[in-house]
Write a structure and sequence with these properties.
This protein has two domains: 172 residues, Dam replacing family, catalytic PD-(D/E)XK domain (PvuII Endonuclease, Chain A, 3-Layer(aba) Sandwich), CATH 3.40.210; 71 residues, Winged helix-like DNA-binding domain superfamily/Winged helix DNA-binding domain (Arc Repressor Mutant, subunit A, Orthogonal Bundle), CATH 1.10.10. It has seven helices and 13 strands. A hairpin with a 6-residue loop joins strand 2 and strand 3. Strands 1-2-3-5-6-9-10 form a seven-stranded mixed sheet. It has a three-stranded antiparallel sheet with strand order 4-8-7. By secondary structure, the protein is an alpha+beta fold. Helix 4 crosses helix 7.
């Protein structure tokens, strides 16, 4: 995997956003394998397709690419996306593609990760202010994806700090993450929230009472549910059954790496 962009493709372009799009999409087309099934190449949809940028012919997965220049090689907590309403519709109807997030500096990839589509819930989409009446698209409302709100299990690095991850490891991590897939959006929301809480506990060994410290936070996120303690235990059981945590009895757990 060559981490450098083909800068010759930028000749003739004057817009920074156009240059970024051309160079990053060309790099993906030349270098990227399918992180879902391991197929060696991805197809590239025609420009301006509203749903996705790339696809895998083998497993029929769709992918969207978001990239940004980052001198510090840090992914950051947010990344800009398109129309807020469109994004919410895609998530709630379970039609959103997997997301590639790329950062680059000096026309070289320093980070590339995939966020599987089943880690997306409406809570991680931040609504931006509508464009002013004087703007060309007055009233249009965009959104940001809050990368920092996604559990670490849903951030699978392909390139990290300028170093390529092993392809088989990437596919294995995706297949492990796939165990967390939930088809109902409300169930997905509860699972992602409790998993994020577990990840915020600093030590690997933890107890149920430590997860209960997040009850008020979870109650605010799910105001229609009056059985937050029960939902926490339900999600912990699901994480145990899928091999993400171990249960030792007596309300004691351990994270599995």
């Amino acid at each position: 995997m060559d981490l450098h962009f083909n800068q010759n493709l930028a000749l003739g372009y004057h817009s920074g956003s156009q240059i970024s799009r051309v160079l990053t999409e060309d790099w993906m087309e030349r270098n990227m394998f399918c992180p879902v099934c391991g197929a060696p190449v991805l197809g590239h949809y025609e420009a301006n397709k509203p749903v996705a940028d790339f696809f895998c012919d083998d497993c029929k997965s769709d992918f969207e690419l978001k990239s940004k220049e980052s001198k510090t090689a840090v992914i950051g907590h947010k990344i800009a996306d398109g129309a807020y309403g469109t994004m919410i519709d895609r998530i709630t109807s379970l039609r959103n593609p997997h997301l590639f997030v790329m950062t680059y500096a000096n026309w070289t990839v320093n980070n590339l990760l995939i966020i599987p589509k089943f880690f997306f819930v409406p809570d991680i989409i931040e609504k931006r202010n509508p464009l002013a009446d004087t703007a060309r698209r007055a009233g249009w409302t965009g959104c940001n994806i809050e990368i920092g709100s996604i559990p670490e299990s849903g951030k699978i690095f392909i390139v990290k700090n300028g170093q390529q991850e092993d392809k088989s490891r990437v596919v294995d991590q995706y297949q492990k993450a796939l165990l967390l897939q939930r088809t109902r959006i409300d169930s997905r929301g509860w699972l992602m929230d409790v998993l994020k809480c577990v990840e915020r506990i600093p030590q690997d060994d933890f107890c149920l009472d430590e997860v209960y410290t997040f009850v008020e936070e979870l109650r605010q996120k799910h105001p229609g549910n009056n059985h937050v303690h029960d939902k926490i235990r339900q999600q912990l059981q699901f994480l145990r059954d899928k091999g993400f945590i171990q249960f030792f009895g007596g309300g004691r757990y351990r994270k599995r790496r």
